[in-house]
Amino acid sequence: MTYPNRHLLLTWHWGNGGLPAEVGQCGLRFDSPAPATQALVDAASGPVSTFWSAATPLIEHDYRLLFVRLVSLDVDGHYFPGTTSFDHTYTGSIPGGGGTITARFPLQVASVATLFTAQPRGQAYKGRIYLPWINAALNSGYAWQSADTANRANTLAARLSDLNAAMPGPLTIFSKGTKAAPTVGAKHAVTGVRIGDRPDVQRRRANRQVETYSILANVT
């Protein structure tokens, strides 16, 4: 069971200034067989830090972007033979641009960004990444306000579009094959992103609760 082809994986790594041992990361895949290089990860670092430090995504100040890493993955999901990873480490780290704490959440709470493709269903038709919680009070339904999720969605989509321009291939959802599906997985380019309004603990414990998504912000 393999991925459709060799590709690039860009991961964002962050910490919490109040609790230095608390770290998190998310990963994005780009459809290109090109090798990872220092120049490529340096080019990708700008859109990531611009998103992080902007006010509209409401990432709390204590969540600090530490570095981004780029690797070339083979179809088995391991490093392509003979390649290595390349890091861009931010000088002094980048604090979130969403101000000081408005509503304190446990550190395992996250905000889910769902990445959509043009496919309505099936393998690799959508994916998700987890980001720090939205630094804003919840409404009476214990969910984030629609204006806050829309702002994060729009800002994230713009920066993902910038990453598409910086990388040698488009942001893509990849899946491996499964026993119930072809041995080789599928892939589809990302066309949009939505932010869910439910705080999440990365184990989808709230999957039986009603969730409202933000507007669909286009990724180009």
How would you explain this protein's 3D organization?
- Helices cover 17% and strands 31% of the residues.
- Helix 1 packs antiparallel against helix 2.
- Strand 1 (7-16) and strand 2 form a beta hairpin.
- It is built from two helices and nine strands.
- Strands 5, 6, 7, 8 and 9 form a five-stranded antiparallel beta sheet that branches.
- The chain has one domain (7-218).
Largest sheet: 5 strands, antiparallel
Count of β-strands: 9
Kindly give the count of domains.
1
Distance between the termini: 30 Å
Helix content: 10-25%
Q: Which spans of ≥5 residues are poorly predicted at pLDDT below 50? A: none
The helix-and-strand class reads alpha+beta
Number of helices: 2
The value of Rg in angstroms is: 17 Å
Mean of the pLDDT scores? 91
What does the overall shape look like?
A: globular
Strand content: 25-35%
Reading the helices and strands in chain order gives EEHEEEEHEEE
